[in-house]
Amino acid sequence: xxxxxxYHPPGTYTPGQKQQLAADITGFYTRFGLPKFYxxxxxxxxxxxxxxxxxxxxxxxxxxxxxxxxxxxxxxxLRKRTREALAALLxxxxxxxxxxxxxxxxxxxxxxxxxxxxxxxxxxxxxxKLWARENRPIPY
Length: 140
What we know:
It is built from 3 helices and 6 strands, in the order E-H-E-E-E-E-H-E-H.
């Protein structure tokens, strides 16, 4: 499951812009076969007096924490391509709008993850493909 935390000052994103960013994030993962419901995007508005870059209040900055749980990679080239692809995905929503943007990706152990009390099926298994088609977890 990709879990995205998007920290931003109030007014940075309209509801429509949030919806579009969440759709772009979801589309990135579903093209690799992940079920849509694996992807969660949480927007956290942080008041200007509580959001600083260095020692200065940040009025035009976004900080994103991405947690990858469903898929991991040790391949340095694939890790670099993933980082670059996510930067390109974010650019129209951040730097392309004049916002300072920083993000990082954590990889959480898959065996510490459950959905509705069900351990997710193995990656790219027939059960995971069924979950993607049905867009919901199904006991197996």
